[in-house]
Amino acid sequence: MDQQLFAELYDAHAQAVYAHVVRMTSDRAGADDIVSLTFLEAWRLRGKLDEVTNHRAWLLGVATNVIRNTRRAARRHSEALTRLPLPDAVPDPADRVVSRITHTAEASAALAALDQLRRADREVIVLSVWSGLSHGEVAKACGVSESTVRSRLSRARSRLRKLTTARLAADPARGRASASRTAREGHL
Fold this sequence. Notes:
Elements (H helix, E strand, L loop, with lengths): L2 H23 L2 H17 L10 H29 L9 H8 L3 H11 L4 H12 L4 H8 L3 H25 L1 H14 L3
């Protein structure tokens, strides 16, 4: 069968195959892929078309087999994923930052320094460190990419560390007094 005859076969039966696939799968988006695979398989088997008396019925049969194969492949893929070992939990570097800020004066200085950060940097610090969100979750919450979150988080941590250290070095007594007031007011 030449390309022109196959193109005519496609034109005559593509809508019927599409409708059949949608009825079988209830998935309009995936139906286009199944129809493409069906006609790809039909092209591969085009040598048998001379023996076929009802092309529409034959194509619907090919489509049904493609649907079965696709479902089988999806099921096998899903089963294979369940057999994979769970990834080891990667410790969140934010936990180390939180654990470092244990002293009340340090916490007060960090909170004061947090207010000096750019809004975008402050958001990623608060969402990641204090709210415990992953980089992906922070990216969704802020409407930016994960790489942007990582760079903002790195920049914010570095700046927060410098500001906190400078604040503690400038007036350690004030840091302790401010910290006790912050703790009393329940801001910590």
